[in-house]
């Protein structure tokens, strides 16, 4: 693990150092590009502000993400179990992904006001799709021989789903959930941009209007770290839920 | 040979596959009697319809013609009442050894804890002691096959259909698994219908061997293997009687394959 983290860490530190040196030697206007140390200083001096707003974004994001994953899973299972439902809904589900989220977000604010709901809905709208698609694919990819074996034991369709299809689909479903987690950060920020009084997206607009570039960079930094931590958290949960994966030589 | 009470009786069994373009006969009219408590083997070349026969005997596939009776089981659907072990072990990579062995019992409605407890009781007998919590990806081919076999035998079926269970094993593992299967079968009275394309394996294991022709499959020769039991591999395969039967089977196979 260490060996895999070290190169990326070294690269990051190296790039930051180059950035710092460039800004200092070329005398770049800090309103255009602040130094990494200035950004870090800004972060350190305004911890409470960033903490408060990060928490607001995080709660919108987690509510929306959870809802999106649940809806995506349910849709995926239904689409797999019921061909007619799949044929009827699939094109429309694709259509929802073609509508630009920034266009939908203002409508949501119009409906739900300056509350958590429109942001969480924006996140959920972006999250459910990759989860639904990976669930359908995963459930459909179960080894047909496995189904026959379970049927020879007298298993009913639901038992086959529970014992074979769902567990064998889990690795794919988790891939979808990881994508959803990455998208949910975007969704939360977009949701905040169109109408909010707090959160990291709101903070970005706030700093932009006031010309506080260091604050803007600091917000992006916080947002990035939040996204990375959440992304790897999903991977960690996956390793907990699927301990067998590291031994599985063959795909099933 | 004096026919005992039949565990399974097939009459005029046929199966034709229709792939939408043409009709491919897989099994030509076949009669077969499996006496109760016997070890019976169907031997034949690849793709001769052996597996199709087994699929019909366990209720996964329907014959297009003919009848299957199972006097020892009584009337009713076959699915779920005949033990079946497919060619590949089909272990679930997300279940450990004990949990995999319990799959059959769980499907039959046995509680999860009870199924796993009963699977756990057989670990030593199936040479899986110490591997109860290992995942399939950590096991050797022979061990995987024993887990799959335990999964089938745990269901306690009076008729068990084994479809080339040792086909993918190396020769040495295969020999020891054959001896082990015979020991198990002799301790646990049940009827076994075994399918293989290995004539040595068929003769070493069985009370009766039925030779199938290439597709469309039908039984072209039935042989009673009256070698004494218990059998030792080294003695049996070098004996005169064994090799005489082997020659008969190979001759017949050469005729039908030509």
Q: What spatial form of chain A do the alpha-carbon principal axes imply? A: globular
Shape of chain B: globular
Question: Which residue ranges of chain B are poorly predicted, with pLDDT under 50 across at least 5 consecutive positions?
Answer: none
Protein chains sharing the most extensive interface: A-B, 25 and 27 residues
Number of domains of chain A: 1
- Parts with pLDDT < 50 across at least 5 consecutive residues of chain A: none
Q: For the largest beta sheet of chain B, what order do the strands appear in spatially?
A: 5-6-7-3-8-9
**Treating each run of at least 4 consecutive H or I residues as one helix, how many helices of chain A?**
10
Largest sheet of chain B: 6 strands, mixed
Structure description:
The complex is a heterodimer of chains A (about 250) and B (about 260). Chain A is mainly alpha-helical. Chain A has a single domain, classed as MetI-like (MetI-like fold), CATH 1.10.3720.10. Chain A contains ten helices and no strands. In chain A, helix 3 (about 45-80) packs antiparallel against helix 4 (about 85-100), helix 5 crosses helix 6 (about 115-140) and helix 8 runs parallel beside helix 9. The longest helix of chain A is centred in the last third of the chain and has 37 residues, at about 155-195. The two termini of chain A are about 25 Å apart. In chain B, helix 7 (about 200-205) packs across helix 9 (about 240-255). In chain B, the strands form two sheets. A six-stranded mixed β-sheet of chain B has the order 5-6-7-3-8-9, sandwiched between helices. The longest helix of chain B has 18 residues, at about 240-255. Chain B has nine helices and nine strands. Chain B starts with 5 loop residues before the first strand and ends with a helix. Chain B is globular, with a radius of gyration of 18 Å. Chain B has a domain at about 90-155. Chain B has helices at about 50-55, 95-100, 105, 110-120, 140-155, 170-185, 200-205, 235, 240-255; strands at about 5-20, 25-35, 40-45, 65-70, 85, 160-165, 190-195, 210, 220-225. Chain B is α/β, with parallel strands linked by helices and about 260 residues long. Classes of the chains: A mainly alpha (about 250), B alpha/beta (about 260). The interface of A and B includes residues 151, 249 and 252 of A.
